[in-house]
Amino acid sequence: MSDPRTTPSIFTRGAVDLGALRPASKPAPSGPAASGAGPAGPAAAASPASAGPGGVPAAVIDVTEANFQTTVLQLSMSTPVILDFWAEWCEPCKQLSPVLEKLAAEGGGSWVLGKVDVDANPRLAQALRVQGIPMVVAVVGGQLVEGFTGVLPEVEVRRYVDAVLKAGGVQVAAPEDPRMDAADDALMSGDLDAAEAAYKKILAESPQDHAAESGLAQVELYRRVTGVDAGAVLARAAADPDDLEAQRLAADIEVLSGQAPEAYERLVAAVKRSAGDDRDAVRKHLLSLFAVAGPDDPAVASARRALARALF
To answer: Which residues are catalytic?
Structure first.
């Protein structure tokens, strides 16, 4: 998602002049009220969203045409505001609103949910081009961020909230994935078949999931070393550098022993000493060990450069 603070507008239905949503100016009061003594004085002016303990904005606020300027626009300069357009007669709204309210409470003040009753605020709904409800959009840094219409599963709503927070520069913790938890539990318990099936299912749904790729690579690694005499393999590899099968298995043992850089170095050296199909087999084996660590591991980045030099 683009950062709305540096993008003129990323609202999919076109640009919306938020300035037009400011309340119309009223004639200056005269008499005692002009001095602030009555309800028309400064004390009655619209105020920003009420704060909770510690000055944190309230998690859920009511947004109206009258308070949009302070409750949404001004607040959005420091805290992302997600708007929920709803109506009392809207049954789907009654499904989505509780999910948004729950996530707002969990957010701990990192964002604010603004509830907009479209029947009570028709001008606001028209200005933001509400075509159907429930409709959700966000305001970050005074700019509209595209949203969605209709009811979505909680996991999808949570992803939208996370995207809005990232657009607002808020650090977002990686959400827990019960599918990954189940796959990891199977791996740790030694049920390699169940772990493999679980990781493959995740990858079928999310092909770029690096954690699932790593998990599947670990399954393959554990299978290769099951029943292996580690000491004998390492001795065999040391005695015969050209024994490529021993070099690959020794590298597996080193990775499981916390010596991944040594394993990578071993296989890069084997690539240099081999050719043809043998060389390709060693290369692929090394790539499988890279997958175990994941793409962000500094040792992997260094070993990839060494592999490229060995190949070319």
So the answer is: 90, 93
